[in-house]
Design goal:
The chain has helices at residues 2-14, 39-48, 113-116, 250-268, 278-300, 311-364, 370-380, 438-448, 456-484, and strands at 17-20, 26-29, 61-76, 81-93, 109-111, 124-126, 131-134, 142-146, 151-165, 175-184, 192-196, 205-207, 217-231, 234-247, 385-387, 401-403, 410-412, 428-430. It has 487 residues and is α+β, with helices and mostly antiparallel strands. Strands 3, 4, 5, 6, 7, 8, 9, 10, 11, 12, 13 and 14 form a twelve-stranded mixed beta sheet that branches. Belongs to the ligand-gated ion channel (TC 1.A.9) family. GO terms for molecular function: extracellular ligand-gated monoatomic ion channel activity; transmembrane signaling receptor activity. InterPro entries: GABAA/Glycine_rcpt, Neur_chan_lig-bd, Neur_chan_lig-bd_sf, Neur_channel, Neuro-gated_channel_TM_sf, Neuro_actylchol_rec, Neurotrans-gated_channel_TM, Neurotransmitter_ion_chnl_CS.
């Protein structure tokens, strides 16, 4: 037992203890220093005459700031902020806490936050934070270390919520920028000169994890800069951290874009359905329109209300426009089909009446011969004539004349047979005007335009090629613009 105590004593006596010279360089304490000052004694001596509210130097104090990012917890688009856990390091020199002349047993003192409350601090704060608190798991996460040359090193583990400059014009292919700004709340830059703690090997802002990813975002860039802000009480140094998050839009591809692709493809099926199946074509287009509208509202419900147009707005409104155009095409097809049915019914009724009148005429008396008609026409009029139903279709050459089957004479339509002479009137056509000049016919043909109307089959055939082609051009322009648009 005596030998064990002797070995321990010798080990304590030979322990290397460092001190610093006036230039701040660490120097080993020689082994001949048989006695060293304990931490408790050093703290009691340092705090005995220490003035907590006095700035360590009348010429001002230079405070170095360093930040380590532990984790990014969340990004909220509705409230435009982000939440993260960070370590904030403050480093300054306080000559009143110098103890290298006291022959310390250690070359640094690791102390609790209770000692920190008794010494001077630069009162650094997040000037733009919405919330900031020091972790209490399970105790206050504050680290304090004092070096023999009076250098004070303070480290806080903080949860902070800061603002984000949200811009949704490229949503969901957007990138968001979030900021955190540090400054001394009580001292301007003449008293406390706050600077980023630069070093050749380590930047002032460091990530403790290689990749910081969230379900919706991934941290793509971060940087620091210093600005000077003028207040009525003086000029303050502001240290700003910038974090750039790019959205992971894979979820929106599956939840927004692919369903709308399906909706617009389904609306195009109506182009190959026969034009007589109007209810089926209407059901496809209307269901596609309702599905796209519901999908659009479901996504927009989780986003803030902004007054500008987002990339997803452009997409959804274009999809609705294409589906609405399919409905318009269906309306044109329905209108042409109704007109065709109406014209067919009118033609069938006209043919039925014509055949009925011819049957009645044939049953009562045989029609006159063509020779008699031409002979009588020469006697009564210098123009030629023919029976109703002949091949003369010029509407300008029609004239109603009466034909008397008893004597084969012709008379104008203004003349009426006497009651004493029962006669049967037949409608014939007479060419009373000569053919108009050729220039007039060409002019009338140009004014009338194409006389052959479009059929429903032609419109459907054009739509089958026009709609997909236009949609493909829109996709090239849309994705080419928003995927290459700078953030």
């Amino acid at each position: 037992m005596r030998n064990l105590k002797s070995r321990r004593y010798q080990k304590n006596q030979k322990e290397q203890i460092s001190s610093t010279n006036e230039d701040g360089i660490l120097l080993p304490i020689s082994d001949k220093d048989a006695h060293c000052t304990s931490d408790k004694t050093i703290i009691e001596k340092l705090l005995a005459d220490y003035k907590q509210h006095k700035t360590p130097s009348e010429l001002g104090v230079s405070v170095g700031i360093e930040v380590w990012v532990q984790e990014v917890n969340s990004i909220n688009e509705i409230t435009s902020d982000f939440d993260m856990d960070i370590y904030v390091t403050e480093l300054w020199v306080d000559n009143a806490l110098r103890y290298d002349h006291m022959n310390p047993c250690k070359y640094n003192l690791s102390l609790s936050n209770e000692i920190l409350e008794k010494i001077w601090k630069p009162n650094t704060c997040f000037i733009n934070s919405k919330m900031a608190k020091i972790h209490q798991s399970p105790f206050t996460n504050v680290f304090l270390m004092i070096y023999p040359n009076g250098t004070v090193w303070v480290n806080y583990r903080v949860q902070v919520k800061g603002p984000c400059q949200m811009d949704f014009s490229s949503f969901p292919m957007d990138s968001q920028t979030c900021l955190l700004t540090l400054e001394s709340f009580n001292y301007n830059n003449h008293e406390v000169d706050m600077r980023w703690l630069e070093s050749p090997t380590q930047p002032p802002l460091t990530l403790l994890k290689e990749n910081i990813q969230l379900p919706d975002f991934v941290l793509t860039n971060y940087s620091t800069y210093l600005t000077q802000v003028v207040y009525p009480a003086g000029i303050w140094n502001e240290l700003t951290m910038t974090f750039t998050f790019s959205r992971r839009y894979g979820w929106y591809i599956f939840q927004a874009y692919i369903p709308t692709y399906s909706a617009i493809f389904i609306s195009w099926i109506s182009f190959v359905i026969p034009e007589r199946m109007i209810p089926a074509r209407t059901m496809l287009c209307v269901n596609s329109l309702l599905a796209a509208t519901f999908q659009f509202g479901n996504i927009m419900r989780n986003l803030p209300r902004v007054s500008y147009v987002k990339a997803l707005d452009v997409w959804m409104l274009s999809i609705l426009t294409f589906i609405f155009a399919s409905l318009l095409e269906l309306a044109v097809i329905g209108s042409l089909t109704a007109k065709s049915d109406k014209a067919a019914a009118a033609l069938a009724a006209s043919e039925s009446r014509r055949h009925s009148s011819i049957s009645n005429a044939n049953s009562s008396q045989a029609p006159p011969s063509p020779k008699l008609c031409h002979h009588n026409a020469r006697e009564s009029s210098p123009h030629s004539c023919r029976l109703y139903g002949s091949t003369n279709t010029d509407p300008r050459a029609k004239k109603r004349i009466l034909y008397s089957p008893t004597d084969g004479t012709l008379m104008p339509s203004a003349a009426s047979p006497t009651p004493r002479q029962p006669e049967r009137m037949m409608l014939i056509e007479a060419a009373d005007d000569p053919k108009p000049p050729i220039w007039r016919r060409i002019w009338r043909r140009k004014r009338r335009g194409p006389s052959k109307p479009w059929t429903t089959e032609q419109i459907d055939q054009i739509s089958i090629y026009a709609f997909p082609t236009t949609f493909a051009v829109f996709n090239i322009l849309y994705w080419g613009y928003y995927l290459t648009r700078p953030s």
